[in-house]
């Protein structure tokens, strides 16, 4: 049981770190242009230097929603981690980690919404770039989506022994 708890804890910390990296790094879309590579994230457009991400007025609300949901997913994931640690020491024997699992599933839903909006609105629409493709931040967000769902379900069925 201790090995299972340690494994879930390590995967949860890994998910939090990957969520931070995915949200902060500006490599959601990558493409090439005349002088090298260009990448865009949720915040900046980077080639040799990074500048503010140019967004059309019709896409601005979508980008703000993606940013907000990614930040919310980080917050919910950290809250679930803290709550798991608290419940680990205060929860009675035989009880389940319902609150931790529910919060982690809310994190999962936030990641799903953010990545789905980004996929629908911004995939393949890089300005000044040829051959655009997804970068590692986008892929990390999808990996975090999978991990947060698995962790949330495990917390719901996990019983403290």
UniProtKB/TrEMBL annotation:
Signal peptide: none annotated. GO terms for cellular component: plasma membrane. Coiled coil: none annotated. This is Epithelial membrane protein 1. Belongs to the PMP-22/EMP/MP20 family. PANTHER family: EPITHELIAL MEMBRANE PROTEIN 1, EPITHELIAL MEMBRANE PROTEIN-RELATED. It is found in: Membrane. Keywords: Glycoprotein, Membrane, Transmembrane, Transmembrane helix. InterPro entries: PMP-22/EMP/MP20-like, PMP22/EMP/MP20/Claudin, PMP22_EMP_MP20. Its main location: membrane. The chain crosses the membrane at residues 7-29, 65-85, 97-118, 138-158. It is a multi-pass membrane protein. The keyword Cytoplasm does not apply.
């Amino acid at each position: 049981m201790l090995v299972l708890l340690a494994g879930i804890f390590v995967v949860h910390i890994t998910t939090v770190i990957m969520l931070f990296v995915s949200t902060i790094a500006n490599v959601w879309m990558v493409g090439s242009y005349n002088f090298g590579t260009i990448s865009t994230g949720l915040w900046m457009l980077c080639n040799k230097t990074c500048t503010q991400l140019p967004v059309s007025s019709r896409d601005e609300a979508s980008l703000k929603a993606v940013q907000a949901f990614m930040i919310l997913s980080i917050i919910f994931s950290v809250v679930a981690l803290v709550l798991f640690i608290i419940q680990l020491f205060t929860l009675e024997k035989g009880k389940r980690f319902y609150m931790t699992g529910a919060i982690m599933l809310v994190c999962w839903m936030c990641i799903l919404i953010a990545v789905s909006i980004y996929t629908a609105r911004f995939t393949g629409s890089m300005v000044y770039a040829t051959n655009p493709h997804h970068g590692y931040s986008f892929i990390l967000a999808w990996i975090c989506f999978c991990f947060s769902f698995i962790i949330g379900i495990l917390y719901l069925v996990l019983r403290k022994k």
